Amino acid sequence: MLPSASNWVLVLLALVVSGGLCWRFLSPASRFHVLDHPGERSLHQQATPRSGGVAIVTAILLAWAAAAAVGELSWSGGLAWLFTAVVLLAVTGGIDDRRDLSPLIRLLVQLLAALVLLAADLLPRNLQLPGMDIPLPGGAAVVVMLLYVLWMTNLYNFMDGMDGFAGGMAVIGFTAMAWLGWRGGDEGFMLAALIVAAASAGFWLFNFPPARLFMGDAGSPVLGFLAAAFSLWADREGLFPLWIAVLIFSPFVVDASYTLLRRLLAGRKIWQAHREHLYQRLVQMGWSHRRTVLWSYVLMLAAGGASIMALNQNTLVQWAIMLFWCVVYGVMILLVSLREQGN
After folding, report:
1. Residue 308's closest CA among 250, 252, 247, 228?
2. Is 331 exposed, middle or buried (0-12, 13-18, 19+ CB in 10 A)?
3. What pLDDT score was predicted for residue 186?
4. pTM, whole model, 2 decimals?
């Protein structure tokens, strides 16, 4: 069954509100016209407004509230808790964009947001892999959930460092999740995810290279958190397991995880700003922002398509898909390293 007309109206609402606010925030007269000046982690060369995340979050929350008001979503399904956690993260991120909060404060707020998901009953009861179902005792389930949510929240923030990158991943990733929700017959999940994708698309229109607006900390940690929350929601409802969600967002998961491990092994301080992510290294080797992000979109679309294809396959095919993507990312890392050495 195709989404109803009212669903598409709500999705359009998220797109229009996000795009309209982004356009407004470009004006120096807006109180949300907060500039991001180039720094150690930056690839941009001039000060650019970084309030796009405010537009994204406002559009998401407004569209979710409208959907609940017309009966398309239910507050009792955990949406109220998710709404609360998003507000908490967005407000903290907005303050951080203006005043640079300490990493400890940001981490504590992220931990609180992750704990909110416990109230939403999104604790995983088992860990599903192709052909395997590993039970998670209560304590282990809490640890797995907290680590997963915190890592997804932060890795999205780490990867928000190039024009069109994080916005494109959100549009593609949450659309893939919505597709899987629709295929699983859960219209509420589909609508909630499509609203996130649409709000991200409204921002992406202003962020595609050359970017006129950045997302900032009011947006990127929220999108990472929502990627984790939606995957836990899908796992609870039996729509798709966590490994499928990880595959959807694997372009970000692999780059951030590999870079963190590489810095740890090199004895570098992992909390310091840097430009060592794969996409940053490509730009520093001479690739343009546009070329890098367009090839990244190809990778994101391929990962999203593979996740959709993998869901209903047999165990052997699912493991083969996982192995294939491990090889793809291994080759990518090797080629980037060899290209650097050649330079």
Report:
1. 247
2. exposed
3. 94
4. 0.93
